[in-house]
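Task 17 of the worksheet. Students: predict the tertiary structure of the chain below and write it out as structure tokens. Keep your answer in the requested format; marks are given for formatting as well as content.
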Amino acid sequence: MSSYTISPALNKSRVFILQKSELEKRFDPFFYVPKLLELEKKVLAKKPKKLRDFVQGLASGATPKTTESEKYYAEKENGIPFLRVQNLSQTGVLEFDDCKYINEETHNGMLKRSQVSAGDLLVKITGVGRMAVASVAPEGFEGNINQHVCVINTGSKEISETLAAFLNSDIGEKLASRRSTGGTRPALDYPALLSIPIIEDKRILQITAKVIAQKQKNEAEAVKLLSSIDDYLLNELGIKLPEPSENALKNRMFVRTLSDIVNKRIDPFFHQDKFINNLTAISNGNYPVKQLREIILGNLIKGSLPKQDEKDGECSVVQINSINADGTIALDDLLKAKNIFSKQQKLQIGDVLVVITGATIGKIAFWSYEGDYFLGGDIVKFQTNSLSDNAFVYHFLRCSLMQTEIKRNITGTTNGHLAPEDISHLPIPVPLLDKQKELAEHITSLRQQAQQLKDKTNELLKKASEEIEEILIGKE
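Model answer:
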């Protein structure tokens, strides 16, 4: 073997030679990438503990069927937080913007073994992107997790915070990724997770504390910007929302004539006063109102859900869980499938996407990416005709007024569904095209400013990780 050499023109981090004696239990090349091996040697030279040395209890959860949502899930007001990978953050602080909730029966029954309490360490063990992202449950917290996260009882919130700070550093992420297995969806099994070397140093908590404080400040400013969008948009359209009624029994009772419900749903929920008042407010605005079907090109286009034997192909597929709460798309975790899609199902810049069923029903997204991407199942898309601007319609559908109207049209109890016909009848104000573009550009600018504030947090995390690396193993 010693007689073999590698051309200097090749990237030594991707092309390398190992002696047979250097092989451990694994045979995949990634495990032996020189930079990762060198990093591990530096860490081991500090005589670290292993993650298993801090573990007093360990469990991962499961995902109750969304097709039986009434049986397992609940609203925020009376539910238990059901934490997923997207609720973990590199700051070590849990994020609840896109949190799901389960009922107490599920929490204390089906998912009893994966309950989360204050001070527990939560670690991402499955999925593309950063591996072993970790967060700590805050004081007074009670929650649960799905199968892509594990909960570790360390016996101390301070220990959990120290471990989270290390795992969220670039050092911790690289050590975790080296131990992961799987191609399209990497994973850490328990032995691999527990074997991660941990360097204890409380100085790294001081660094992450500064990042958390700045993150909270940035997010407060971002929330202020985003919360101003509804007021700006509705004010510009001349839509004055009615004052909400007092939550009294007399205000929850109403009468509708037969003519009010002909060719419509007959359940009381659909005919509540608040919905009627919202539609009246839209129609009394400054601009003519059309139904969505009158301002789109062609019909709503439904996506396709690849079957099991149609997966593992070359097509990137946007699914319902690819759509974030803020209307962006998580491109780093798309399904790969064989080309089963029609030409119309290929995503085009300017497409407006609507989730029509599942746990994220009613979410709206705007497609602004180039490349070959396709529309997955349980989503419809459309583009507007010459009467309207795609971005304006997207922003209007995302405002709280229209989200209320969208929720009004959801049917089904165990598995909610938005019929394309109901979507096509949604009311849309239609100012002159120049006015629509003006509104869309201003709102886009506000969203971009909010995103820039969030991006500052990522920059701070990168800098903090560099400081942590210098403290723990020194500069290169």
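Marker's comment: DSSP finds 13 helices and 19 strands in the chain. The first strand starts at residue 49 and ends at 50.
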